[in-house]
Amino acid sequence: MQILDSALEATRDAAAARLMAGELVALPTETVYGLAGDATNGQAVARIYEAKGRPAFNPLIAHVSSFEMARQLVDMNPVAEKLAAQFWPGPLTLVLPVAEGCPVHPLATAGLPTLAVRMPAGPMRDIVRRVGRPLAAPSANRSGGVSPTTAAHVAHSLGEKVGMIVDGGSARVGLESTIVKSGETGIYLLRPGGLPREAIEDFLGMELLGGGEGGIEAPGQMTSHYAPSGHVRLNAVAVKPGEYLIGFGSQALPGQEHAAGFANLSPTGDLVEAAANLFAVLAAFDAPGIHTIAVAPVPEHGLGLAINDRLRRAAAPRPFQPEKL
Ligand code: TXA
Ligand code: MG
Q1: Predicted confidence band at 211 (pLDDT cuts at 50, 70, 90)?
Q2: Model pLDDT for residues 139-197, shown as the tens digit of each residue
Q3: ipTM
Q4: For binding ATP, which residues are annotated in this chain's numbering (predicted)?
Q5: 118 among the known binding-site residues?
Q6: DSSP character for 85?
Q7: Is the model's pLDDT at 217 over the cut of 60?
Q8: What is the pLDDT of residues 220-246, one digit of tens each?
Q9: Binding residue per annotation — 172?
Q10: Is 31 assigned to a binding site?
Q11: For residue 300, how far is its CA from the centre of ligand 1 (angstroms)?
Q12: Which helix (H) or strand (E) holds 284?
């Protein structure tokens, strides 16, 4: 693993080149170190989850270098524009509706209709600018660990899971960004963080809703979140006539030739590729007329844990789905 000085031009060039090639790089931000990958590249995003060892897909923050880039990703309402103009670059993340044509891969949003965006201060912003694409970056620690504020913390937590760490010294803020969601029903504090709640409230001249302890919204954790409208049948060992099939690996299931439709998460049985394809396949099979979707078994290790977690949620019973009525 390489640890390179963020002040050097050559470091920023090397980091940008790796990121453009779909590799991961740990980058310093003013809040904590992030494990960054090209947010538009499903395989890069899958590698982030893999490196963190997370058993589920949590939506990630897309880091931007300019207001223009942010507007390509999300619908910036007037409150969001105002907050961004005041606090970016800085420790504030905004959760907003995904914009039409947003290039961020659905694995980074965990399939949600909203996306978290932030413009970081320091060398990461310059590296995003060089890459020319948004970077997805959760804190650069193994799942369940403490967010790292030095390059040494990152090396200790992720070890050989990360090939390059850009060393920018100690993170100035040392706390993750404050997350605010601005929507039609109000302005919510989803996660307290490096920008004090009062600073936002004083600036807006109003109180934020929600927040405090337990204020984090965990959209990916809702049991039936992001499920296709059809019934999902997991660990199928054979395909019944009329069923759609989500396959994994090269082995055909008995009855597969009678499937009404077929998509393979990864013909070679590669879990990184399967993760990158998962949300797109679920979305494609969320269509009128698709009543039952059989899913071939996916191995319960590595990224397979997160893939299966998400598939179980997709298969969970849903008593009420207002958005589908
Ligand atoms: O300071 C930070 O925000 C750092 C640096 C690297 O930028 N990043 C960070 O990322 O803390 P992460 O992945 O550790 O935390 C992001 C949080 C998660 O709790 C996630 O659930 C939430 O943001 N989140 C992301 N997208 C969301 C969305 N669309 N709606 C609600 N919450 C979302
Ligand atoms: Mg984290």
Answers
A1: low
A2: 999 988 888 999 999 999 999 999 999 999 999 988 899 999 998 889 999 998 889 89
A3: 0.99
A4: 54, 58, 63, 114, 118, 139, 147, 191, 226
A5: yes
A6: H
A7: no
A8: 444 445 578 899 999 999 999 999 999
A9: no
A10: yes
A11: 25
A12: helix 271-284
Residues recorded for the chain: 325
The ligand with the least distance to the CA atom of 45 is 1
Domains of the chain (ranges, CATH numbers): 2-220 (3.90.870.10), 231-324 (3.40.50)
Does the predicted TM-score (pTM) go above 0.90?
no
Residue from 74, 115, 158, 179 to probe ligand 1 pocket by mutation (most atoms less than 8 Å from CB): 179
Q: Sheet containing 34-38: which strands, arranged edge to edge?
A: 2-5, 164-167, 25-27, 34-38, 135-136, 61-63, 114-118, 92-97, 178-183, 186-191
232-269 CB burial, b ≥16 within 10 A, e <16? bbbebeebeeebbbbbbbeeebebbeebeebbbbbeee
Of the bound ligands, which one is closest to the alpha carbon of residue 104? 1
